[in-house]
Amino acid sequence: MFRRAVVVFAILAALVGVFLARQATQDDEVLISGRNNTVLIVTDSHHGMCNAHLATVSALVENHPSVEVHYASFSGIASDIERISESAKAVNPEAKIHWHQFEGPSIVDEIKAIGSLLEIVTPPGMSGLKAFAKMVPFFMTAWSDEAHLSLYQQTVDIIQKVDPAVVILDSLLRPGIDAAVNLNRTRAYITPNALVDLVSAVQPRGGHFWKYPGIASGLPFPIPWKDIPTNMYQQLYFIIKFLTSPAIKNKRSSLQEKGIPQAVNLFEMYRKDVPWIAMSYPEAGYPLEYIPDNFRIVGPLVLDVAPAETQSAELTGWIKKAPTILVNLGSAFRYEEPRAVVMAEAIAAVLDATDVQILWKLRKAHKYGDDFLEPAKKYVEEGRLRLETWLDVDPTSLYNTGDIAVSVHHGGANCFYETVLAGIPSVVLPLWADHYNYAQTAEYLGVGIWPNKKTAPDWEAAALAEAFLEALSGNKSTTMRQNAKAIAQKGHEYGGRKLAAQLVAEMAAGGK
């Protein structure tokens, strides 16, 4: 039975591979470049995706004064652009970022319009995969036709006005992608995503199906033999759902009728002349046999515009009082009260048992009181537990102080690579989709712990506290720190934001 299943899946995998390869090798028109040494970056304002672009832009304006830099996005990151521009002037007095603000909803606005970001929280395995398979078409078709057309036209107008040598894109902002594609402009993508999530589909011998854990699967690497059929089924299920999605098909047809000839292109990343600048790097992930030539590996793209004490002398002074655990579950996550209660109980247990202090980034999902803090209330009063709704200091700048002992995060790309580059242990609390792969990756690399696997995405206070203490000073702590520092060193060797900025500047120099 097993052999028969493998044969069937191998045949289906081959058919999918042929389909993808045929799409990837279609003849494409030669891309059009605009004014020499001019760059336009077009992104959504979701920090989970655009932080990598912001980090690149910061190095671009600091180190490449001959490049004229334009940035188009939503109001949500206007202050980030201003902060980066002002900080860059300390290095390059002529630094300037030309800002173009979109009118209309961002992708986060569209998510909020149909529900809550909390609805994205899903378990690993088939139920989580089914939810993720529904999410992906949404993210590719998030905007109404009217909003999509408006953002598309705004991007077209900006491209035609600026006439950049290269357009740098965000894979979440489909209207911007459509504009660059339909104008046939020279372009590139910057992505925070893991290499395995981007290129496993083109690995030799159908490795996508039997070698690499599927997104949202929660399976470890290497995949145990008994779980290979499950992984094959889940990978094939997702591909078929993606390729046959009525939402994508209908959105494409509707937009084509309204004047966008190449709308919602599914195979843009397979163009050999369209580079993808990736901050994921081989040493910080599962081993890959093949990385396409259009992928440029630059290492972690992290924002670090100024030393932590410059950004917030008060917060920096506080973290220097004792080794600090940072609890930061990303820019999108909000705590419902039951989760806040569990986290507070875990934090109280850790503070009971140690002399460390904890910086907890906490944003509530809705209005509720502070009763959830009762287990840890005395530590707030003593000053050993600090709650912030937002961090005014770039996480990398905090890590660079050397005072953060452990990073507790959700397994988002930015949090994962920021922690990897810092060379400190992680406790990963995955909440959806690719988070589960990052949690497994942290354990595979020996740099982190994923507690509560059996209850994910829900938590138990005792298991959280145990993981916090283990990462801090347990039997595995020393080995995790050694592994983390070795992987961090490799990450620094790639060049990060400076290499990404150099690649963008080189593309800009190819203009007319």
Keywords:
512 residues, alpha/beta, six-stranded parallel sheet, 21 helices, 48% helix, globular, UDP_glucos_trans
Describe this structure in words.
- This protein is an alpha/beta fold.
- The protein has helices spanning 2-24, 47-63, 78-88, 107-114, 126-140, 145-162, 174-182, 195-199, 207-210, 228-243, 246-257, 308-311, 313-319, 337-353, 377-382, 395-400, 413-422, 434-445, 461-473, 477-494, 496-508, and strands at residues 35-42, 68-73, 97-101, 164-169, 187-191, 276-278, 295-297, 324-327, 357-361, 385-388, 404-409, 426-428, 448-449.
- Strand 9, helix 15 (377-382) and strand 10 (385-388) form a beta-alpha-beta unit.
- The relative contact order is 0.14.
- Keywords: Signal, Transferase.
- InterPro entries: Glycosyltransferase_28, UDP_glucos_trans.
- This is Glycosyltransferase family 1 protein.
- It comes from Trichoderma lentiforme.
What's the topology here?
Layout: H1 2-24, E1 35-42, H2 47-63, E2 68-73, H3 78-88, E3 97-101, H4 107-114, H5 126-140, H6 145-162, E4 164-169, H7 174-182, E5 187-191, H8 195-199, H9 207-210, H10 228-243, H11 246-257, E6 276-278, E7 295-297, H12 308-311, H13 313-319, E8 324-327, H14 337-353, E9 357-361, H15 377-382, E10 385-388, H16 395-400, E11 404-409, H17 413-422, E12 426-428, H18 434-445, E13 448-449, H19 461-473, H20 477-494, H21 496-508
Parallel strand pairs: 1-2, 1-4, 2-3, 4-5, 5-6, 6-7, 8-9, 8-11, 9-10, 11-12, 12-13
Protein name: Glycosyltransferase family 1 protein
InterPro entries: Glycosyltransferase_28, UDP_glucos_trans
GO molecular function, one term: UDP-glycosyltransferase activity
